Amino acid sequence: MHDASATTIERLYTLLARDFELKPEALEPGTRLEDLDIDSLRMIEILFSVEDAFRITVPAEQAELREKVKTVGDLAGYIDSLVAAQHGAGKGA
């Protein structure tokens, strides 16, 4: 269950802090994933949690994902695009 009023980035911060023991004060949209010690294996673990939390499927193109997603804000934007594509834009308000 999640707070429907929480933004994607707020939900992502909660997930990263709770499930991956990242310090909440370190989580900012511009924080680089590599600065959080998120390597490719840890990114896969995070993406599994993201899939569950946001009820989406993340495509398996890891190389493309690494090019697109460099920061926490990039990851939130990527999640938003998948949610829109998979659940339809305009749901909720």
Key words describing this protein structure:
single chain; 93 residues; mainly alpha
In short:
The chain is mainly alpha-helical. The protein is built from 4 helices and no strands.
3D architecture notes:
With 93 residues, the chain is mainly alpha-helical. The chain has a single domain (8-87), classed as ACP-like (Non-ribosomal Peptide Synthetase Peptidyl Carrier Protein, Chain A, Orthogonal Bundle), CATH 1.10.1200.10. The chain has four helices and no strands. It is globular and about 30 Å long. The mean pLDDT is 88.
- Biggest sheet descriptor: none
Helix content: 40-55%
Task: Supply the number of helical segments.
Answer: 4
**Please, what is the average pLDDT?**
88
Total E-strand runs: 0
Count of domain modules: 1
Strand content: under 5%
Structural class: mainly alpha
Q: What string gives the helices and strands in order?
A: HHHH
CATH class division? Mainly Alpha
CATH architecture classification name: Orthogonal Bundle
What spatial form do the alpha-carbon principal axes imply?
globular
From the 3D structure, determine the CATH topology. Non-ribosomal Peptide Synthetase Peptidyl Carrier Protein, Chain A
> What is the terminal-to-terminal distance?
17 Å
Integer-rounded radius of gyration? 13 Å
Low-confidence stretches: none
CATH superfamily: ACP-like
